[in-house]
Amino acid sequence: GYDQFVEIGRVALVKFGPEAGKLCVIIDVLDHNRVLFDGPAHIIGVHRLHIIFKRLALTAIIIAVLGEARVKILTKAFEEGKVLEKWNASSWAKKLAQKEKRSNFSDFDRFKSMLVNKKISSLVNKDLANLKKENKKSA
Amino acid sequence: GVGRLSRSAVFRKARRWAGPKTTKVVGKAEPASTAAVVKEVGGANNGGKRTIVPKTPKFYPAEDVPKPLRALHVNYTTKLKASIVPGTVLILLAGRFKGKHVVFLKQLSSGLLLVTGPFKINGVPLRRVNQSYVIGTNTKVDTSNFPNLDKYTDDYFKKPKEAAHKKSEEEFFAPEEKKKEIAPQRKDDQKEVDSPNLETIKKTPLLRQYLNARFSLTKYQAPHELKF
């Protein structure tokens, strides 16, 4: 079943809209479609706002806040929960960062990464060819 | 698609029944001076002055003479794209060297860009290239080593005009000799421009290989999404 629920304290990633790509904490559930969320503003840059479920992607991180927590309390819980560290360590965040980096590649960067990929694949293919050879021999 | 107006409606609306477009000159063909001129006259008993009223000209054209419209064409050097700066690596998009990465040297007075391979790296000589057929990348080569480029102008690249002569029958059917000899001056100039650059290029790892490679799009690359 589902293990990540929309709940107060759940950290979510905004997928779509002007705040897209930013983390936020769900502070209150407004109705069956919407939640109230908050950055906190001075850490994340997202002010207290309501948003539709569909625009959120839930993460595995939860912090301990009560409903409609004030920004000061929210910030304290955010820092104690080490949300940003946990987020940046997650492979999801790393993939997003990598995607962002690649989209900003200059043509020269793309050329360099192409050479690296070529090298990697040639090493992999070499090993694969050796394994296939050994397999043939033993068979 | 289909236009809003029919052909006759366009004709009427564009006033094509009024004849070809000229500035309206009503009545007078040439603005002759009609002011009376007072001239000094010699002689004691002549009164000193004569007022001369110019006669109306004997000849005037039967129809209004159309004034030609002002010549609005102005010669100016094409504005360089912001991404193109001396030392920028450009991607050539058309022509014999399409896909090649070249180094931009300077803009010539005709608006064309002067580029070089450098020749030893990718075979592109000192060449003129149109800005429209070029992508400017973010990669730049240090320009402090560029030699003086003043002698490279449009005249330097102009093809010498060969005297046109009618070929005799034998000449016409003779196999064409395609020996294009490059002037030694050109070769020397190429070396002069390229050798300081080669040193600079060697300092950046993989830049030499990059300049030698040709640009191409792979399967999931869309040029409007790429950053250069």
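qc> The longest strand of chain A covers residues 23-29.
qc> done
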